[in-house]
TrEMBL record:
<keyword id="KW-0472">Membrane</keyword>
<feature type="domain" description="Major facilitator superfamily (MFS) profile">
    <location>
        <begin position="6"/>
        <end position="410"/>
    </location>
</feature>
<feature type="transmembrane region" description="Helical">
    <location>
        <begin position="292"/>
        <end position="313"/>
    </location>
</feature>
<feature type="transmembrane region" description="Helical">
    <location>
        <begin position="47"/>
        <end position="68"/>
    </location>
</feature>
<feature type="transmembrane region" description="Helical">
    <location>
        <begin position="138"/>
        <end position="158"/>
    </location>
</feature>
<feature type="transmembrane region" description="Helical">
    <location>
        <begin position="262"/>
        <end position="280"/>
    </location>
</feature>
<dbReference type="GO" id="GO:0022857">
    <property type="term" value="F:transmembrane transporter activity"/>
</dbReference>
<dbReference type="GO" id="GO:0005886">
    <property type="term" value="C:plasma membrane"/>
</dbReference>
<feature type="transmembrane region" description="Helical">
    <location>
        <begin position="75"/>
        <end position="92"/>
    </location>
</feature>
<dbReference type="InterPro" id="IPR036259">
    <property type="entry name" value="MFS_trans_sf"/>
</dbReference>
<dbReference type="InterPro" id="IPR050171">
    <property type="entry name" value="MFS_Transporters"/>
</dbReference>
<protein>
    <submittedName>
        <fullName>MFS transporter</fullName>
    </submittedName>
</protein>
<feature type="transmembrane region" description="Helical">
    <location>
        <begin position="7"/>
        <end position="27"/>
    </location>
</feature>
<feature type="transmembrane region" description="Helical">
    <location>
        <begin position="352"/>
        <end position="371"/>
    </location>
</feature>
<dbReference type="InterPro" id="IPR011701">
    <property type="entry name" value="MFS"/>
</dbReference>
<keyword id="KW-0812">Transmembrane</keyword>
<feature type="transmembrane region" description="Helical">
    <location>
        <begin position="383"/>
        <end position="405"/>
    </location>
</feature>
Length: 418
């Protein structure tokens, strides 16, 4: 197998890893009623599992990132994937005990967030050269989206074999979906390279200094790391918020719920455009930050145009139009983590930087839904106007931060040459 083919197959395997390992912690989003019925728990208890998981993740991101820079990315990923599958098997046979389930969800933070996430993002970075970071991250996110959907579909197929028995179906779904992570681990064992420095990837810098804990302080004190983290914050906020087009179409435009759901499926499929964003960043703009600045401003303009869509517009036309900002958002989001390369973060410290960025970058996942929910509860359908204005401002801020990261990154490069 030639090195180029191996490189792309490894990214695909990483996409499978990222797309399958989160099946169990987020299983409620696919099998909500079945999980509650099988466990015999309330909606509040179901929410408690997710709250425990997300809060613990936030606590573990930075120490996990530091550890990811100290150990082999390959070993960290394989062990995390195997451990997650084991937890799925344990959960399948003990789900009647809520206390055991709580322990499992806490353990899932250790196997899916602690060292796994930073190692995963670091692995994507070190597999490719600095000139192809955008495409590598874009390809990863496209594969991630596809394999996530396939993992859920695979689990759903086993769920349906129970003939309507929720408990039996859910048991089979957990075993089936939980098994995919270990398959990803086996593929990474075969495909990922491991060099002497403890980095796994074809393009890892052999001459880079080894990680030192004293470097952690430098990363924590580096303004560019924090600014880059807010670029990711803005990118994630846009990515997660395009889902609000779904209720917007039904409540404001009058699209039938079934049609709106169909548009939502298409919107999720637009993640396949992530590699296109990567190619634009690498080949056309020759800069991730330039592409992010441009795409943030394009999305801002598209959100602004939504404010002027008349209520009398043809529902089909409105539905199709909402896919345009969604498409650009997917191409934007697919490359946000490659901003670390342009920020001048050394490869050996990528894990620590990703840990910091993840704490800040994923805040919109929980914060934006609270803010937007408040807009809709207070203003009804008019609340979408406030949502889009909020997102326009977020885009402008994201574009501004991307410009700053590029300038600081170029300045750091010039200083290193002196």
């Amino acid at each position: 197998m030639n090195s180029k083919m191996r490189k792309y197959l490894t990214v695909i395997a990483l996409g499978l890893a990222g797309g399958s390992i989160y099946f169990l912690p987020y299983v409620k989003f696919v099998f909500y009623d079945a999980q509650i019925a099988s466990m015999g728990i309330s909606n509040t208890q179901s929410g408690l599992l997710m709250t425990m998981y997300t809060v613990t993740n936030m606590i573990l991101y930075i120490p996990g990132g530091i550890l990811a820079d100290k150990i082999s990315a390959k070993k960290a990923l394989v062990i995390s994937l195997a451990a997650t599958s084991v937890l799925a098997y344990i959960y399948a046979f003990t789900m009647k005990s809520f206390a055991v389930s709580m322990m499992i969800w806490l353990a899932l933070s250790l196997t899916t967030a602690f060292v796994f996430w930073s190692s995963l993002m670091k692995a994507v970075r070190i597999i490719g050269t600095e000139e192809e970071q955008g495409f590598m991250y874009g390809l990863y996110y496209a594969c991630n989206g596809i394999t996530n959907a396939l993992t859920n579909a695979f689990a759903l197929k086993f769920f349906n074999t129970a003939g309507g028995d929720l408990q039996t179906g859910f048991f089979r779904a957990v075993l089936a979906g939980g098994s995919i992570a270990i398959v990803a681990g086996i593929l990474l064992m075969v495909l990922m390279k491991e060099n002497k420095a403890g980095n796994s990837g074809a393009a890892a810098d052999a001459d880079e200094d080894k990680f030192k804990f004293s470097d952690v302080g430098k990363i924590l004190r580096s303004p560019i790391v924090w600014i880059a983290s807010f670029v990711i914050f803005c990118g994630d906020g846009i990515y997660t918020s395009v889902s609000y087009f779904n209720p917007y179409l039904t409540e404001v435009i009058g699209v039938a719920p079934a049609d709106s759901s169909f548009i939502s499926v298409i919107r999720n499929g637009l993640m396949l455009l992530a590699p296109v964003g990567g190619l634009l960043a690498d080949k056309v703009f020759k800069s991730t930050c330039k592409w992010l600045t441009t795409s943030f401003l394009i999305v801002a303009a598209l959100f602004a145009s939504v404010l002027f869509i008349p209520a009398s517009i043809n529902p089909t036309a409105a539905s199709v139009y909402t896919l345009i900002p969604s498409a650009v958002a997917m191409m934007l989001y697919g490359v946000v983590f490659s901003v670390m390369s342009e920020a001048g973060i050394p490869r050996m410290l990528t894990g620590t930087a990703i840990g910091i960025a993840s704490i800040i970058g994923y805040v919109p996942d929980s914060l934006y839904s609270l803010i937007f929910g408040g807009f809709l509860d207070k203003f009804g359908g008019h609340g979408y106007t406030y949502i889009f204005i909020f997102l326009i401002v977020s885009c402008v801020i994201g574009a501004s931060f991307a410009v700053i990261v590029r300038r600081l990154g170029l300045k750091a490069v010039e200083q290193s040459k002196e």
